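Comment thread on ticket #2218

A.B. wrote:
> Attaching the input chain for the structure job we discussed in standup.
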Amino acid sequence: MLEARAAVKSLHAYRPPLAGRQGLRLDFNESTIGCSPRVLARVRSLSAEALARYPEREPVEREGADFLGLDAAQLLLTNGVDEAIHLLCSTYLESGDEAVIVVPTFAMYAIFAQTEGARVVQVLAGENFVFPLEKLLARISPRTRLIALANPNNPTGVAVACEVLLQVAHAAPQAAVLVDEAYFEFHGETILKYSERPANLFIARTFSKAYGLAGLRIGILAGAAEQIAMVRRVASPYNVNAVALAALPEALRDQDYVERYVGEVRSGRQLLEQELGALGLHYWPSRANFVLVRVGPAGTEFIQDLRSRGILVRDRNSDPGCEGCVRLTVGSLEHTQTLIGALRDVAGKLSGPREVRA
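C.D. wrote:
> Ran it. Output below, let me know if you need it in another format.
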């Protein structure tokens, strides 16, 4: 009888709660205003002939590389950052290898590593989710072949200095070290600014957040040309669809639109954190487009109360160290004000001690 591999049968399936998402969607860190009108116009202009052809990725990769100040050989377009993670695992991990992650973090690092039969080594973040550099370095072994780090991290919003991430990469030259910069635009710091990057370092970017293109599934994996060439061998030549490839150049050209939205998010993030503090809610200062807040044992009721007011937020209670926590996406200033108004209504129902961390 046909059976799946043991590594697949033992996986914990990741099923995001996408069904019934009616209302103000502040649960998946998407843009709350959508993509640039220029991008939408480009998508609407596509012909039937354009959609009938297999997509050609390389010309758009050259534009993406120019935008980031890279050579085209240093960049691979991917079907979202998810595929970038999957490709790295397929390229560098074998059964019995180790993948090191700092938790809590994005679930797909562990899932894709386990799919290859690798052992996932979890390093728990320090108090207040401080990056556990010494503990991480101590867990690196000759069997470590992948280290995946989100910066800023999801779901905590905490960022790490690029110099620390470079130290990790230099400490594990036998491992692919991924720095996932999905929330870069809201943070403003990137490891790409260092010209002397080690050959085992990879950087991922997405256009799902600040650019409002989550539905098109397009991301970037950057790294040393010789390593990207290896990853490219694993990727399908048609992994990014024609609509996404048509949209991306327009999205990159309309930086005014992106910068305006990012500016609103940053302002809204500050307003939201101030309001959480005024309400006596325990939160962690964020460098991303969301804020993690601890509401305690009434978390489920808190989420449902917001849903009843037409606002969706994300339950993070099951993440390591996130008991009683909820993640709130920050969108436009208008949407943030709507969230703040709802929080004032529901916060009074919460019970138990409250401690503000600002």
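A.B. wrote:
> Thanks. Noting for the ticket: The CA atoms of residues 268 and 333 lie 5 Å apart.
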